[in-house]
Specification:
The protein is of the alpha/beta class. The protein has 9 helices and 4 strands. The protein has helices spanning 14-28, 60-71, 85-101, 111-114, 119-130, 137-142, 146-154, 179-182, 194-202, and strands at 2-8, 32-35, 52-57, 105-110. The chain has a 4-stranded parallel sheet with strand order 2-1-3-4, sandwiched between helices. Helix 1 links the parallel strand 1 (2-8) and strand 2 (32-35).
Length: 206
């Protein structure tokens, strides 16, 4: 059984892609093991030769905003897996470097341009990549419009992994570039940080 790993940065659309693909795979009875690793990819979860990787990434500054909104954090109270905003951004960029440099068969998706509003297009890309029947792609993609998913996650009171990977308030509005209005000077340190600044420029976020 081959593994399809929906891997990527936190808050970059991985749960959305994973849940959408899970529905398609169940409908066509495809023999794939689906997993959704984040920072553990390439470390706790070792890549296998025949893995198929779907990698999602996003402006790391908006990831911090997204967490602040969904978890009701301030910048100073931010804590995700023992990381403050700066250490989390560093780890996300390290993940990005590991994934992109690995020869695994992969599809790379940019949150801002490749996922929301392009549900059918991205499902077609994924089913073509892994070689499964895409006859249900239109039906499934219509169920995964961001407005519909937001209504579902807004009603969740407690995380139940046995049901899905959605969290309470998991989906906000999907908009990008919110860090510019959300923060005042909290991210000013990035201007003098070569690692983060270089990554933003390389990925056309600056």
């Amino acid at each position: 059984m081959s593994r399809v790993l929906v891997c990527g940065m936190y808050r970059s659309g991985t749960t959305f892609i994973h849940e959408m693909l899970k529905q398609v795979v169940s409908k066509v009875d495809a023999n794939y093991e689906l997993k959704k690793p984040h920072l553990g990819w390439g470390r706790r979860l070792k890549p296998l030769e025949d893995d198929i990787l779907i990698y999602c990434y996003r402006d790391v500054r908006d990831i911090i905003v997204s967490y602040c909104q969904s978890r009701k954090f301030t910048y100073d109270s931010f804590k995700i897996h023992a990381n403050n905003p700066q250490s989390l951004i560093y780890k996300l960029i390290d993940l990005d470097d590991r994934v992109r440099s690995h020869p695994t068969n992969k599809l790379t998706l940019r949150y801002e341009t490749d996922i929301f509003g392009k549900e059918l297009e991205v499902l077609n890309k994924i089913t073509n990549l892994i070689g499964i029947d895409g006859r249900y792609n239109l039906e499934v993609s219509n169920n995964f419009k961001i407005e519909k998913i937001k209504k579902i996650t807004d009603k969740i009171e407690k995380f139940k992994h046995s049901v899905s990977n959605w969290w309470p308030n998991h989906v906000t509005d999907g908009k990008s570039g919110k860090w510019k209005d959300y923060f005042t000077n909290e991210l000013d340190w990035i201007e003098n940080d070569d690692k983060v600044k270089s990554w933003l420029i390389k990925n056309n976020y600056e």
